[in-house]
Structure prediction request, 152 residues.
Amino acid sequence: MLRIDEVMNHYVALCTQVPLRPIRSEQDYEQALTSLNALLDAGARDEAHPLVDLLDILGDLIDEYENTLLLKAASTPGEILRFLMQQHGLGQSDLPEVGSQGVVSELLAGKRSLNVRQIRALASRFGVSPSLFMDASSQNSSSRVTSKAGSS
Prediction:
């Protein structure tokens, strides 16, 4: 039988040394890197080391945070789409939910904007927030519309 109290106590103790939770800030990120380096220094890179799985999990958390930072740094929905396509090894013809290869090409070149259906499909496919595919001008205009509607 699983003893939740015991598991919780061990988990909390482990998390004080190694952050096994999503990284949400620069401070969390620095702590995770410090822990990762300590694990590497202790030999956890070796597949036979008892902490190799812990190293893998921590590495995945760091990778997820770094990818999120890269996505936020991209300035247009087309750049974000290009980044995600590269990460997943996809070509322009591999996104039928968006449209033809020509449509995807225009999106990547900034000649066409994503519509709501495409944004939902891409967010679902890549497991990201739909807001990543909305450029600042469309977010500002939609918030202006909302605030105007709310003030009437």
